[in-house]
Structures are given as C-alpha cells and as structure tokens.
Input
Amino acid sequence: MKSNTEKFGKAPHQPSLWTRADALKVHADDPTTTQPLVSADFPVLSNEVFIWDTMPLRDLDGNITSVDGWSVIFTLTADRHPNDPEYIDENGNYDITRDWNDRHGRAKMYYWFSRTGKDWKLGGRVMAEGVSPTAREWAGTPILLNEQGDVDLYYTAVTPGATIVKVRGRVVTTEHGVSMVGFEKVKPLFEADGKMYQTEAQNPFWGFRDPWPFRDPNDGKLYMLFEGNVAGERGSHKVGKAEIGDVPPGYEDVGNSRFQTACVGIAVARDEDGDDWEMLPPLLSGVGVNDQTERPHFVFQDGKYYLFTISHTFTYADGVTGPDGVYGFVADSLFGPYVPLNGSGLVLGNPSSQPFQTYSHCVMPNGLVTSFIDSVPTDESGTQIRIGGTEAPTVEIKIKGQQTFVVAEYDYGYIPPMLDVTLK
Ligand code: FRU
Output
C-alpha cells in the first residue's frame, strides 16, 4: 500500500491546534457573535415529532439545492410521547423534558419539503424500519448527485458502535410534493481506527460521526469531514506548550483538560463514487480545549476554506469555557494551517440568558445559519423552560477575512435554495 507521502508527494499535514489561549478569547454576549434571543412563543413544526439536527439537500460543492422548485431538508427526528405512560410524571403531566432528553436513543432520519424554503411539510422516514443496521440514525449529509434525482445520504449508524455509512436513493417530485424512493441498502464506509481517531475501546465517551462529503474546489477530489476524538487511551493525552498556546501568567494550569480530545477528521475517497475511503490525520485538534467538535462543515469563499463546527459549554475543558454554538476556523488551503475566526473561534453562540436556546448550527454558503430550538426559559429565573424540538429562526452572518458578523435574522427554519435542479 502506498504511504500518504508517496501519494500526496509530501508529508501528511499536521492537525491545526485550537489552543487554550485561543479559547480564552471566547466571550459570550458579544453582539457580533451572539444569536438573537429566541422568544418562548415560537411555533413548532410538528406536534407529533421532535426534530433537531437539520441537513439541507445540497450538491457536492456545498450549494443548497431545490429540485423542480421543491426545497428539501432531512432532520434527525423522534416521536413525541405526550400520552405514553412512561413519560407521564407523578402529577399526571407529560414530562416533555425527559422525552426530549431521551431522543438521541431513537433518532431516525426524516425528510421535509417546501415551496418557499420554510413552512416545511413532513415527507416521512427516509429508510423503512429495519433498513439501517443499528438503533440510531445520527447526523450526516444528503447529496443530490445528478439531474436524475439520485441522492447519496451519508450518515452515522450508532449503537452498537459508530460507523460512517451511506445509502443511495432517489428524490421524486410531483406538483403536490416530494418523495424519497430507494434508500434500501446501507453501505458501511469506515469506523474509528484507534491510530488517528479514538475508538470506543480507548474511550467509552468517544465521538465518531457526522459525515460531510465535499468536492475540493481546488484539487477537484472527493473528501469528507467528520467529528472525531484524537486516538489514544482516555487520560493519556498530553496538553503541552503547543496545546496551551500563549497564555498570560497564571493561566498555565491545565487541570484535567487531557480528557478533552475533540478533533475534526477528514477522509479522501479512493474512487469517484465515494464508496471507498481512506482516513487522513485530523484537520483540527481541540485537545486540552474541548471534547466535541460536531457536524464539521465548510464554506468555500474568497479562495479560502472556512471550517465550521458546533460545540457545547459542557464539553469545554477545565479553565476554558464558551457558549453552545458554532465555531469557525479559516485556512488558505484544505490542509491548513487553520486559524480561529474572530481570534477565539466563536462565530455564533447562545446568549448567556438563554444558554440552551439553539444548537446544531449549519452555516450555508450564502451566509445563512440554520439551527434548532432546544429550550427557552419562560420565566425570569430560568427555572421554567419550554422545550423546542423544532426549527430556530435563521440568522445571517457576514464572513470577512478572519472575522464574522451577525447581520440579520429571518423566519423559523428559513432555508432557501441557492440553485434549482430540474429533474430529467
Ligand atoms: C448534534 C449531535 C450530532 C449527532 C446527533 C445525535 O446535535 O450530537 O453530533 O449526530 O446530534 O442526536
């Protein structure tokens, strides 16, 4: 087998580091990097299901694509159980918070369609029960492949294990709506290897998921981003000078930050169809800073690579913190070096008064950022909350060099197409 050096003609890249010094620059509530307050009287997409991670149909170049004038989104979805005795509390009330918190264990891929890029209509489940090999259908990316309507859905098959998989189907339109046909054979692509990416055996809290395939605008090859953790036994990672960065006196203590080992992974396809993949070293490492860099994705703009990824307050390491939201990094070439946007990495975080209002942001190439509503306080003290499980208002950011700015807010779940494909 050829080594990376033989294949690429140079030594493989080193992961760029998101350092503790960078993270010290993260500040919640800077209005240019904070999502406007979501009001507690938001509408819900459906009273039957919760939705969270939203995956707009797109092409391999990243363009959000409608078909025959129909916009299409895929969502992680789980039934709501307002009448299930299991979710009725001792006072006879529906415990929606517990139902919502349990959703990851029963996540399924659904799709929705719309003529307006909002007001989504439920299409249904993408794969029939029994098609996907594991209990959970976790996030990924639906790719429109051609004018025949072929769609490759890349996603994560979780529990047991975590495998990046894909399933091929087709989108069919009529004047009344959209349906998804096929999606019957799931093909496993790869799992964490324990050498570059941490395995479950190395760390029961490992993350390996959220494939985002793309064609590199410069070399034209097919690659895929994904979420991982840096390989190695849990607790064995070193948080040294490089991971700490240039911190002020008194900030050298890294506490237990060796347990936080997030990375953004990358793989390259060996074939045209994306059936055969080779993992490469991570693009970005957050060792010593954060344990999760989820749903990584790119915006290609002004000849630069803008890498976005979502992360949580609770996954930050000792001594550093930041809001739930989307973080970003920029490089002049695919393999970096990447530097944090806005100095810190923070691009769009929740306001500290509503720390869980939204999550799972996806920055689209038109600067629009979609996310879902998690929970919004309904009283001053923040003890009463309203659970979302629905689309959040779309926010627009402007990306300028190494900076980003929040500039506008639109309707709930507004995901307009960037191009329309007429199916043949
Ligand atoms: C983000 C996320 C993804 C994962 C899914 C599981 O909200 O944690 O990384 O695929 O949700 O529900």
Remarks:
- Residues 52-53, 76, 104, 107, 138-139, 156, 209-210, 227, 294-295, 359-360 surround beta-D-fructofuranose (CB under 6 Å).
- The chain is about 5% helix and 45% strand.
